[in-house]
Amino acid sequence: MYKIIISLIFVQYCLAQICQKSQILDALSQACLSCSSVCENCFNISQQSCIGCVKNSYLSYDDISTCQIQCRKSEFVDSESKRCIKCKVNGCVQCTSSQICLVCDQNLVLDKNNNQCNAKKGICESDQQFLNPPFESRKCTNSCLQSYYQNYNSQICEYTQECPQIQQLSSYIMDTFVDEIAIIKENQYMVISGVSCSFAIVDINWNIITKQTLLDKNSFEIDVTQDESKNYFFFTGMYGGCMRGQRFSVMNFETLQIEFDEKNLEQQYKIIYTDDVYKLVFMVDNQASALIWYDINNKKINNRKISIRLFYITYIVKKMLQCCS
């Protein structure tokens, strides 16, 4: 019995050596079967069973066992793996192996400094609208569809699962640290990630109602850590905002409109206190030498700087009065 088994193994080994590179050994018939014409090597004879591709063919991005003659739009060939790789820059139709975008899709313009594709100026009727994919359709809306999020930097709708800050599967998932969860209405909650400057309104079952990333963290040199994140966002009532570098943006989550967007502050600031009663957001500079505040009701930053010492004295007195009243 053992001799028969050893003999069969030996025959199979010999046949395997006889089979050509583009063939596979059929264990039952002990015959060499040809791979699909697009496969250089294979594990089955179907077109979806390639291990490698013939010359001038490449493994598919969506199915690494399938070969295709050329990569699709927004994909490039990885010279090492001979596989089509998708450009990670949203709206990019041609990029390098380092994921540097070279050409953007129709109705988009390349921002080389930030390596992103932005909606062309005037493509939408309003700066508060967003260009929807497919971008050649030139369709602009005030808000994006359920599976997309509104990128306020590029003014386009990006597919949620390609967004580095927020992903939606069967439930709400944030791949960054969640700083705060607040009740905003009956059975509605605001979930906030200061690290990624992301806000999401979810229902009691954790399903997304709307989600917004106010400032793309990849567009700024400043890197906010988990411990520092609370200094770079605020949320009060139906208003939320973020600070990145010298830019400060505020959104009304009831209307889903950006109500304030200052891109050129004198210097970098940190958010240290939010007055929920008077709707004031206090910010301090990096030297902790002076303080400014944003007035939510009047939609403006007060540039009359006051000393930090005076602010804390006023704040402590206010808290004492609240306790005693």
TrEMBL record:
<keyword id="KW-0732">Signal</keyword>
<feature type="signal peptide">
    <location>
        <begin position="1"/>
        <end position="16"/>
    </location>
</feature>
<dbReference type="InterPro" id="IPR009030">
    <property type="entry name" value="Growth_fac_rcpt_cys_sf"/>
</dbReference>
<protein>
    <submittedName>
        <fullName>Zinc finger protein</fullName>
    </submittedName>
</protein>
<dbReference type="InterPro" id="IPR006212">
    <property type="entry name" value="Furin_repeat"/>
</dbReference>
